[in-house]
Specification:
The structure holds two protein chains of two kinds.
Chain A: E1 6-15, H1 19-30, E2 35-38, E3 54-56, H2 58-61, E4 65-66, H3 67-79, E5 84-86, E6 90-94, E7 99-104, E8 107-118, E9 122-124, H4 127-130, E10 140-142, H5 143-151, E11 160-164, H6 168-179, E12 183-189, H7 198-205, E13 212-214, E14 216-222, E15 229-234, E16 247-250, E17 253-256, E18 260-262, H8 265-269, E19 294-296, H9 307-325, E20 335-339, E21 343-347, E22 350-351, E23 357-363, E24 367-374, E25 380-386, E26 392-396, H10 398-404, E27 409-416
Parallel strand pairs in A: 1-2, 1-8, 2-5, 8-19, 10-17, 11-12, 11-17, 12-13, 20-27
Antiparallel strand pairs in A: 3-4, 6-7, 7-8, 9-18, 14-15, 15-16, 20-22, 21-23, 23-26, 24-25, 24-27
Chain B: E1 3-7, E2 16-22, E3 25-30, H1 35-46, E4 49-50, E5 53-59, E6 65-70, E7 74-75, H2 79-87, E8 90-92, E9 100-102, E10 112-114, H3 123-126
Classes of the chains: A alpha/beta, B alpha+beta.
Chain lengths: ~425, ~130
């Protein structure tokens, strides 16, 4: 270690000061742990600060807050807590033994933690990941980047806009652009159904007569310096563009709202096993990974659809980290949780079977009147409608567990009622 | 009789609901599958409202914009008027969350408030 480098010890270091990290850090401090939150941005709150629309907090607070309002409920509590908040600070490297090097505004800092919560959120999938051919002009960006430019910087990145992807970010940014005086000429979705919430399709597109092109995608990008236009093509059942259906559209901004991927770099760096489905870590009911003392929560584990769930996961991971840091052993997660019929994935992927746990799952196909159940048991949860775009969250109670403790694995399945 | 089609937003199912009407009066509603859906479409027919969330200019803060919202839904037809009125506003940091930016936007009786606080940032910090 360089002699100028300072070093510190903490019970818990939380990486990321968004909703997941704030909840984990706050819970840790409430339970008496020495907690540090490391945030690379100039303030806490994460992506909530740019999500100025309302709809946050319905599950937790029973009201519809905007993103910044939701964030401030936590930042104000953290300000009054013992949490050591480090802004403008990057994690340069992280070891499996939970020691790390931080780059702070005042130089390098070595920190040794008993437990680490990686609340690093997610990244938007980029043009490279979906491989759209064509030129490389400016004016092609992820929808979230446009959201930041407009809502935080007061900068309108285009006047005639096309949006690829009908996820909620794409829908909400379409309305936002319209309100700021841009013309959104259309939204394309490669699937044959919109992937965002129905409410957003109606209130963000229908309200402003913005056309939604289902089973369509962008197959070419025109322009050298600045974007001049795109080619929109219909796709077949295999999601392949159909020859001869291409139509050129003049636009100066193309926004990509084509999904999020957990920010998993530090999980990889510390040797944590990742799930091929979620691309986040495999976790137990305390959000602990298979590297002892390293936890995840929120979008770094899997892409959630409500911030309320992110917060609840953060509290749970905070509880887990406190227990681990205090040498209270967490129960061994020896039962595997399996994604069975019509389920894309379930989180957590393993549980002890001793503690009640909340599970989150996404289905593979839209269905009506279904039971979400654990195979071979009478534990089931009725849902009128399930779609891949909406996460299902339920809780397995202590009573439920008592009935199924003999099972070696919990296989979840989603089946229609006849 | 004139007809209007709505997509219900009461749940993810998104029923297509058809309203037959004369003037301001609903004569028939068809296509809904639950009472929530019927209520939603009736409200949407008589008095469609939306929460407006946008930003206004702010001086001496770490960002040049501060997010604001209407406290309750404003009539959908007044959204453009509200946006125009808010273009004229410029605040100066420090500003608290919930600060009233306009107390009766476009004569709707509804106020617009800030949805975050922003502390004052001195010029040297901005550089």
């Amino acid at each position: 270690m360089n002699s100028n480098t300072k070093s510190l010890k903490k019970d818990i270091v939380v990486v990321g000061g968004g909703p997941a990290g704030m909840a984990a850090g706050l819970r840790g401090a409430e339970e008496g742990a020495e907690v540090m939150i490391v945030e690379r941005d100039i303030e806490l709150g994460g992506i909530l600060n740019q999500c100025i629309h309302n709809g946050f907090g319905v599950e937790i607070y029973g009201e519809e807050l905007t993103g910044p309002e939701y964030a401030e409920r936590f930042t104000s509590q953290i300000g009054e807590s013992t949490v050591d908040v480090r802004l403008n600070t990057f994690v340069l490297s992280m070891q499996p033994d939970k020691s790390m090097t931080l780059l702070t505004p005042n130089g390098l800092l070595e920190v040794e933690a008993e437990a680490v919560v990686l609340a690093t959120g997610a990244r938007e999938r980029s043009r490279g990941e979906i491989r759209i051919p064509g030129g490389r002009p400016s004016g092609v960006m992820p929808a979230g980047t446009a959201q930041e430019l407009i809502n935080k910087k007061g900068f309108l990145p285009g006047k005639r806009v096309f949006v690829l992807g009908s996820g909620d970010i794409g829908l909400i940014i379409s309305r936002r652009l319209t309100w700021e005086g841009a013309e959104v000429v259309g939204v394309a979705e490669i699937m044959d159904y919109p992937t965002g919430l129905n409410r957003n399709v109606v209130q963000c597109l229908h309200d402003y007569d913005i056309p939604l092109h289902l089973s369509h995608t962008v197959t070419d990008i025109y322009g050298s310096d600045r974007l001049k236009g795109i080619k929109l093509s219909r796709v077949d059942d295999g999601m392949q563009p159909v020859e001869g259906t291409g139509k050129d559209i003049d636009v100066d901004l193309l926004l990509l709202s084509v999904g999020l991927v957990p920010e998993n770099d530090f999980f990889k760096e510390t040797g944590v096993t990742l799930s091929e489905k979620t691309r986040g870590p495999i976790v137990d009911e305390w959000f602990q990974t298979d590297v002892p003392g390293i936890f995840g929560c929120g979008n770094s584990v899997h892409i959630e659809d409500l911030v309320d769930w992110v917060t609840m996961d953060g509290f749970r991971a905070g509880d887990g980290a406190v227990a681990y840091a205090g040498n209270d052993s967490l129960p061994n997660p020896e039962k595997e949780v399996i994604a069975g019929e019509n389920i894309n994935y379930v989180v957590p992927q393993k549980v002890s079977g001793e503690d009640p746990f909340r599970f989150a799952l996404r289905v593979e196909e839209p269905m009506e009147n279904v039971d979400i159940s654990i195979k071979g048991t009478d534990i089931s949860f009725f849902q009128r409608i399930v779609t891949p775009g909406e996460m299902e969250v339920e809780e397995v109670s202590k009573d439920d567990l008592a009935k199924i403790k003999e099972l070696e694995e919990f296989e979840f399945e989603v089946k229609g009622r006849n | 009789m004139p007809k209007r089609e709505y997509t219900c937003v009461a749940c993810p199912k998104g029923c297509t609901v058809e309203v037959e009407f004369e003037g301001d009066e609903i004569k028939d509603i068809t296509g809904y599958n639950c009472l929530k859906g019927k209520d939603y479409v009736e409200d949407e027919f008589h008095d469609p409202r939306r929460i407006l969330t946008t930003t206004v200019k702010i001086k001496n803060a770490k960002y040049p914009r501060i997010p604001v919202r209407t406290e309750t839904g404003v009539p959908k037809d007044e959204l453009d008027c509200c946006l125009d009125e808010l273009t004229e506003v410029e605040l100066e940091a420090p500003v608290d969350i919930g600060y009233t930016v306009i107390d009766d936007v476009c004569s709707t009786g509804i106020s617009v408030v800030t949805s975050r606080s922003l502390e004052e940032v001195t010029v040297s910090k901005l550089e």
